[in-house]
């Protein structure tokens, strides 16, 4: 059914207020997932659940398993027809003043549901991007998980808005490309795919995983996770970015390099769309 306002839940109860203190607000002490809902059905739910649990384990936060399935079931009743974004945030909850986690924390779950105005798996105009001046700090203990500390992305997104870029590529301290501001990066080179290794920083996206494990193999494409610098991006045959709400989005311009033909990106998008349609019909 249609909704007139974006509903929120805190620990399973409908609410627009966050109990304080909360370590997620104070320290970014927690993780989150942003799921795509199609007519109330969550896409790639298992991938999101596995990443969420990995992040919680990495931070030492105990939470109910499987957490996302119950959350999706609750939100589905108020999800609009078509496409919606479901953000699920899990913090360490309340605690005493100071950085040290409480000895027996109680995880807090915050859920936000918002309609989407676009079809994530329809072909859209290729992006014009550039390289952000904001560097990602390397921290192997947090690499891959979707933790709440996103100030680097906030600063990079502000730079995108100032410069009029559709997206930006973010580099680490050594100058290697890690990802886009809000998505993972893939390059097409000689019929294979390259994507940055995420051993030092960056988020291991659910769509990145789907490309590597399902969509590229369906087309007979090999995927290599490796170190990538800016020159490799400029030499690519195609470039695309992916995330849960944007699907796969081709890059048309990056500095002086322009791309106008995207056969591999289009083929991957078709495979992804077929799979998403199958999930909705199941």
TrEMBL record:
<keyword id="KW-0289">Folate biosynthesis</keyword>
<dbReference type="GO" id="GO:0046656">
    <property type="term" value="P:folic acid biosynthetic process"/>
</dbReference>
<dbReference type="GO" id="GO:0008696">
    <property type="term" value="F:4-amino-4-deoxychorismate lyase activity"/>
</dbReference>
<dbReference type="InterPro" id="IPR043131">
    <property type="entry name" value="BCAT-like_N"/>
</dbReference>
<comment type="similarity">
    <text>Belongs to the class-IV pyridoxal-phosphate-dependent aminotransferase family.</text>
</comment>
<keyword id="KW-0456">Lyase</keyword>
<dbReference type="GO" id="GO:0008153">
    <property type="term" value="P:4-aminobenzoate biosynthetic process"/>
</dbReference>
<dbReference type="InterPro" id="IPR036038">
    <property type="entry name" value="Aminotransferase-like"/>
</dbReference>
<dbReference type="GO" id="GO:0005829">
    <property type="term" value="C:cytosol"/>
</dbReference>
<protein>
    <recommendedName>
        <fullName>Aminodeoxychorismate lyase</fullName>
        <ecNumber>4.1.3.38</ecNumber>
    </recommendedName>
</protein>
<comment type="subunit">
    <text>Homodimer.</text>
</comment>
<dbReference type="InterPro" id="IPR050571">
    <property type="entry name" value="Class-IV_PLP-Dep_Aminotrnsfr"/>
</dbReference>
<comment type="pathway">
    <text>Cofactor biosynthesis; tetrahydrofolate biosynthesis; 4-aminobenzoate from chorismate: step 2/2.</text>
</comment>
<dbReference type="InterPro" id="IPR001544">
    <property type="entry name" value="Aminotrans_IV"/>
</dbReference>
<dbReference type="InterPro" id="IPR043132">
    <property type="entry name" value="BCAT-like_C"/>
</dbReference>
<keyword id="KW-0663">Pyridoxal phosphate</keyword>
<dbReference type="Pfam" id="PF01063">
    <property type="entry name" value="Aminotran_4"/>
</dbReference>
<dbReference type="GO" id="GO:0030170">
    <property type="term" value="F:pyridoxal phosphate binding"/>
</dbReference>
<dbReference type="InterPro" id="IPR017824">
    <property type="entry name" value="Aminodeoxychorismate_lyase_IV"/>
</dbReference>
């Amino acid at each position: 059914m249609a909704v007139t306002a974006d509903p929120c839940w805190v620990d399973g109860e409908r609410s627009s207020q966050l109990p304080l203190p909360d370590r997620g607000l104070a320290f970014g002490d927690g993780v989150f997932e942003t799921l795509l809902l199609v007519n109330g059905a969550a896409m790639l739910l298992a991938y999101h659940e596995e990443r969420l649990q990995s992040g919680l384990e990495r931070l030492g936060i105990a939470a109910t398993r499987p957490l996302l399935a119950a959350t999706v079931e609750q939100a589905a009743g108020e999800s609009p027809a078509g496409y919606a974004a479901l953000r699920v945030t899990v913090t360490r909850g309340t605690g005493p003043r100071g950085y040290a986690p409480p000895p027996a924390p109680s995880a807090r779950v915050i859920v936000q549901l918002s309609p989407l105005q676009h079809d994530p798996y329809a072909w859209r105009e290729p992006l014009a991007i550039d390289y952000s001046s904001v560097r990602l700090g390397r921290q192997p203990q947090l690499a891959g998980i979707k933790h709440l500390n996103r100030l680097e992305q906030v600063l990079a997104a502000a730079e995108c808005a100032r410069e009029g870029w559709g997206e930006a590529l973010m580099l680490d301290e050594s100058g290697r490309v890690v990802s886009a501001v809000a998505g993972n990066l893939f390059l097409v080179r000689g019929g294979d795919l390259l994507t940055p290794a995420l051993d030092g920083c960056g988020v291991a996206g659910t769509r990145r995983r789907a490309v590597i494990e399902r969509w590229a193999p369906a087309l007979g494409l090999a995927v290599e996770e490796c170190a990538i610098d800016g020159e490799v991006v400029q030499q690519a045959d195609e470039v695309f970015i992916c995330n849960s709400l944007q699907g796969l989005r081709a890059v048309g311009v990056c500095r002086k390099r322009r791309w106008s033909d995207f056969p591999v990106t289009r083929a991957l998008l078709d495979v992804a769309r077929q799979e998403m349609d199958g999930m909705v019909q199941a």
